[in-house]
Amino acid sequence: MESNINSPLPKAVVILSGGLDSTVALAIAVRHHYNAHALSFFYGQRHAVELQHATEIARYYGIKHEIVDIASIVKLVSNSALTNSRIQVPEGHYTSENMKVTVVPNRNAIMLSIAYGYAMNIGADSVWAGMHAGDHAIYPDCRPQFITQFEGMETTALDTVIKLQTPFINKTKSDIVKWGDIYHAPMNLTWSCYKGGDKHCGRCATCVERAEAFHLAGVTDPTEYEDPTYWKTVCNG
């Protein structure tokens, strides 16, 4: 049974993809005594396996978890490698120009809008999301300006203040791994790979970024990669 349904703690909606960033954000929210409600989205992503991991992570924390099916939007945002199987997922470093093919237009704005509606409905005082500094170059809706303006828009829309918590907005991926280690986040349960196979491919940009982050953080990487050394050739690691 979920442990947070009748909790007296302040409520928070945490967008939980099943990935490393959102899981560590959840760990921080829980440690800071929030009654966390996890919210995940199926938007037609090729790596929908991440939702299985989100479910495991929510179960690990014993918290309420909702998966929202918005897959009908996939035909409207089909020019992304994440929503169109005919577009190849790029390999290499996360900051490479070819990573722009993984952009799903307005994805964070869509998810955050739903999260804010949910937060208002349950009386939560914050919404948490795991965007970090490494996302800024590729994803416009992961930048500080977007976060500030989106929070302001929702304050107007709901006529109340619900804080948008993005603890990693100016932090690196390796910082997130360090925090995950400090907060004992179940990083072994997380999923990053955009290809969505049986295990992490080790070659797509998210796998490369993940492997490099654990290395730079000095934390043992629990991930099993199909190609465990490729990241070193890309990152000079």
The average pLDDT value, as a whole number, equals 93
The radius of gyration is: 17 Å
Helical region count? Answer: 7
How many E-type strands? 5
Q: Tell me the distance between the termini.
A: 44 Å
What strand line-up does the widest sheet have? 3-2-1-4-5
CATH class: Alpha Beta
Verbal overview:
- With 237 residues, the protein is α/β, with parallel strands linked by helices.
- The chain has a single domain, classed as Rossmann fold, CATH 3.40.50.620.
- The chain is built from seven helices and five strands; from the N terminus they run E-H-E-H-E-H-E-H-E-H-H-H.
- Strands 3-2-1-4-5 form a five-stranded parallel sheet, sandwiched between helices.
- Helix 1 (20-31) crosses helix 5 (173-182) and helix 5 (173-182) packs across helix 6.
- The longest helix has 16 residues, at 107-122.
- The model has no long low-confidence stretch (mean pLDDT 93).
Summarize the helices and strands and which ones pair or pack:
Elements (H helix, E strand, L loop, with lengths): L10 E5 L4 H12 L3 E8 L6 H13 L3 E5 L37 H16 L3 E3 L15 H15 L4 E3 L7 H10 L22 H13 L12 H6 L2
Parallel strand pairs: 1-2, 1-4, 2-3, 4-5
